[in-house]
Write a structure and sequence with these properties.
Blueprint (H helix, E strand, L loop, with lengths): L12 E5 L8 H16 L3 E4 L5 H12 L4 E6 H5 L9 E5 L2 H8 L5 E4 L4 H15 L7 E4 L6 H12 L12 E3 L5 H7 L14
Length: 202
Amino acid sequence: MTEPSTLGLPIQRVCVYCASSRKVDARYFRAADQLGHLLARNGITLVYGGGGAGLMGALADGALKEGGRVLGILPRFMNDVEWGHRGLTELRLVRDLHERKRLMIENVDAVVALPGGTGTLEELFEVITLKRLGLYIKPIVLVNTGGFFDPLVSFLEGIIREKFMDARHREMWCLVKDAEEVVQAIQQAPPWSHEARDFALV
């Protein structure tokens, strides 16, 4: 049985992966702030990693300034060194990074990735893998600020070309130029099936 897409359905919760670096270019901060505002304006709860610095802080602040609801999920060791955002609607402290990642995608309607470093990419690859196995079936949207994700998509195309993945796996994610396109991309994402695991090993 194919699961329905989110087309025409209300989007209630969205998980966003992004960086905590304070040193990145201003265009990445603008994109994070813009996405936070956009989610809040659309009545969508933001679920993210709970940090107060870098793009994580800009994302949360953007949503909060717009009156949005923001749920941060943060490992206790990060809270102990005061990495957590202090003004969130809810900050949930968890044991470790594994629990954080699991809870961040629990009951969300989509995952969105902003540009980031190894932590962001690790989260992104994990959720793509879960989708490939049919364990997560919701949309995955990459916000391609300044062409940031172009090399990654090219790499994934190479994986498909070399037959480590099937061509159908291209439908697991979509690329948008900026945050303004995120909600529409979620709504128009092609459906994904629990039965996707049937071609996961081809």
